[in-house]
């Protein structure tokens, strides 16, 4: 779970983008490879052969939200900015023995409440790759 908040101040051209608040809650389930990894790490040292990579698959379910204040230009609020979005985001993560991992999730809006006249979000895709250095 994380809840970052971004406070903004007036920038160039007498403009202030609205504060931004994210809130995220994630659950993961070790779907495949977890038992093999546990067995691998509890064996005798003679059986621990790092030449055999172990893939780990996790299923992920997230609830992601973002709320943004309206922007201000010359002290006047722009009625067509800001709003509230809440997604349910199922996803998957794959990793290999602490060396790297990759993930993808698809966010489907549960709450899609932009202020004023703005495009509504149909879905979002978030993905990434991470590497461990040993």
Question: What would you say this structure looks like, in words?
Answer:
With 134 residues, the chain is mostly beta strands. 7% of the residues lie in helices and 54% in strands. It has one helix at residues 34-42; strands spanning 5-6, 15-16, 20-32, 55-68, 72-73, 76-77, 83-96, 100-114, 124-131. A 6-stranded antiparallel sheet has the order 1-3-4-7-8-9. A 3-stranded antiparallel sheet has the order 2-5-6, with no helix packed on it. Strand 5 and strand 6 form a beta hairpin.
Key features of this structure:
134 residues; mainly beta; six-stranded antiparallel β-sheet; 1 helix; 9 strands
What is the end-to-end distance?
27 Å
Average pLDDT across residues? 87
Strand percentage lies at over 45%
**Annotation field: number of helices:** 1
Share of helix, binned? under 10%
What order do the SSEs take from the amino end to the carboxyl end, as H and E? EEEHEEEEEE
Overall geometric form: elongated
Largest sheet: 6 strands, antiparallel
The stretches of 5 or more residues where confidence is low (pLDDT under 50) are none
Number of strands: 9
Radius of gyration: 21 Å
Structural class: mainly beta
Strand order within the widest sheet? 1-3-4-7-8-9
């Amino acid at each position: 779970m994380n809840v970052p908040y971004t406070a903004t101040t007036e920038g160039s051209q007498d403009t202030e983008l609205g504060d931004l608040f994210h809130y995220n809650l994630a659950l993961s389930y070790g779907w495949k490879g977890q038992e093999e990894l546990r067995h691998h790490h509890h064996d005798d040292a003679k059986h621990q052969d790092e030449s055999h990579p172990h893939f780990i698959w996790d299923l992920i379910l997230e609830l992601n939200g973002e709320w943004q204040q309206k922007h201000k230009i010359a002290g006047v609020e722009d009625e067509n900015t800001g709003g509230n979005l809440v997604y349910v985001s199922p996803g998957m993560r794959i990793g290999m023995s602490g060396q790297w991992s990759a993930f993808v999730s698809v966010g489907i809006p549960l709450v899609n409440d932009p202020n004023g006249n703005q495009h509504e979000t149909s879905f979002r895709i978030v993905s990434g790759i991470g590497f461990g250095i040993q």
